[in-house]
Amino acid sequence: MLTTTPFSMQKYDLNLLRKKRTQDGVLQRWQAFQLVSQYPNLWNTYIEDLLLSRDEVIQEVSLSFLAKQEELPSSLMPLINRIFDMSIDFMKVQAALVLCRFQENVLIVQKLKNWIDFLVNVDTVDSSTLSNIVKILLEYNPQFYFAYFLDIINHKKKNAIYNSILYEHLFYAAQDDLDNFSLLLEKYQTVMQNDRSRFLVDSQIHYWKMSSFFQWIENALNTSHSVVNVLTEIFKTAGITMPPETEEIIYRFSSYFDLDSYRNDYEIATYPIIQILKEYWEQVSANSTHKDIPYFNIVISTIGNASYWKEQMPTKVRTVEMIFILTLIQYVLVDDKLTFYLQDPSEYASFISQLFYSPFILQSQQQRILEAFFPQAPLLTTGNLKIKTVERLYNDIENISEMQILWKLYSGEWLGKDINWPSLLSQPCSPYLFEIVFTYFKANFQYYVEKGNHKAINYAISIFIDYNSREIIPFIYNNFDYLVRFHFNSLYSCIQSLPDPCYFKKLCQLYQASFTEISVLIRFLATLYDFPLEITIKEEQENTNLPYQALVKYDYNVKLYCNECQLFSLLTVESIYVNERALLQSDTLTKDDIWTDKKFKCLHCATPIEFDLDYESAKEIENIARTELFLSNHSPVKMFQNYSITLLNFPFFQQKSYNPDKFIALATQLQKEELSKQERKEVRTILLKLYQGLRKWDEVLAILEENKEDTLDWQFEKATAEFYLDKKAKARKYFLLIKEKLDQEATLSVTQERLRTKVIFFLQLIDSYHAQRQYLKIVPEDR
Fold first, then answer.
1. Which tens digit of pLDDT belongs to each residue from 554-567?
2. Shortest CA distance to 115 belongs to which of 101, 102, 96?
3. Kindly report the CA angle at 724 between 780 and 730, in degrees rounded to 5?
4. N or C terminus: which one in the chain shows less Cβ crowding within 10 Å?
């Protein structure tokens, strides 16, 4: 007997995960994911089976897992070596990342070296691929690969992207080796003389983890063009009193950097700027806690060498380097001041708070502040994270960091409130914050279901899936009918990631032969938990051999819900129209902004069904439409050839937007009322444009015939309708009349010139059509 409660919160049984009796790819992948995530300590008992799988996804999961282990048994080396030899692209990279762990094997080291030699010489390797390889190799054999990659830079002088990747990782590898660091900077200096890009500077910015601070200063300088103003704001926020000698240096620097002469005569201006920067650094570092960190001195002194700045270096690159040096110096000043404040946090709370929320502070500094005020992180449970107010909390801080979010939670400012997590974070990065977000949605999942907040529900389910805990199964099961109705795709992913016997009966009640996703889930659970299959499902399983990838459909089907029988019908839509005006004016589309002229009936009870899409389907259509709108402005190529989604300006009347059905009904009603001549003309014009957009040429022709006008525009609309109704002769007559009238004009306005161009285009199409007909042969029926 199938039981649905109580729910088991324990992790999946190891024997269940190690079943070998199924060839179902979806189930095999699920088993592999669960094994490495829930039983990582037992990996040596199952990893070989996973590596021998014919499923590439399972092999990739296994290799990624092995790459994170501290020690690997040598018995795995032949198997991984074989995967490396037989693979290409991403799988080969994954195998290489594991293979490089066997550094004691000379043949393996040489094989990897030959492979990297090939990659860096073909100039087609993906940058992320190269980055992963360099990082891993430097981590496990820094003595050998540091010199090797440094030597590669000699041969890749003109490949700025490769050099940037190599430099960034080499900086990290040389942290504890001053000699290597000096060699690296010498090489950097040589290459920069020949390189005309900012990639190498960016590699240093990333190394020092100062991207946000640098970006803030760069943007501020581009906006205000005043070094004095920018640095003054930093001093003020940090509570630093600027000494007279510092102020004098900043003004001298600004006099060179801000003047147009620097933009035009940078060769002349560069040398004084470098000298001033060196002077500024010497003054700051003299009393700094950072003066014992050799890397700061090496970077500043090396980059600040006047002989380094060659005339052929572009002004933009010089500017970026100077801003970077300026950023480093400001970081030292701010960090020293913060260190002083944190000796007595309560005394300097106002200054610390200013720094904490300032745009130029680093995340590591924010973490120090957080630890100073909250040495023991408050325990955040479902009790204190549960929403206790109807007030919706919207984020009013631009680019809020995870540390700032934690501050608001620790301080209690956000506790009990409806937090807009999807807008705050696309995905939590730190494990602790991820745990908090998971707990938050455990506490409030039912709240969001009752509110119908679809965006929050989708976000919550994605967090549940990533957290991979069976704790969430009751939340999904208790809201199963709601999620089927409004969030089927998310529900599908959740059941596949965290299956449970409780779903089987509910899925069987929803079964339809054409509803492939339901069938897949039923077979998945039946195989996993040994449930018997209904004869119809079993026959479908035997007669179809659908690959997993086929579940992603590109022919447009919609799932419409019947309120009468409470079942779904999977129906095909030939054409869906999206309101282009709404796409341009709003971030979110309403129900009336997505429309189709097709009428639907339930496949089960024949009751008429409204075209009412669930949240996920509507969002998918909106995303496709936005992409189409973007591409239509940037490329003549239509990206989604298989989608029947058309952009159309929906009727807009009396400051209100209508979908086509509603406006046609309104226009019919207005015809019975007394309207002014101007109002009737406005309604008629909107209807005409609507029918043209829908390509309903009979209706277009009917409106034109009813309202005959002796104007060129009217004749053009008439001719166009006749053309699309395949009445080419009539269309040609109207087009010729328009052309003759325009040709008689001495000069044409811009509008008339455009009209003439359109007319000529249609005439050429008609002539081409007639020319093709001359070659048609009439074939006797007996042939």
1. 456 788 888 888 77
2. 96
3. 80
4. N
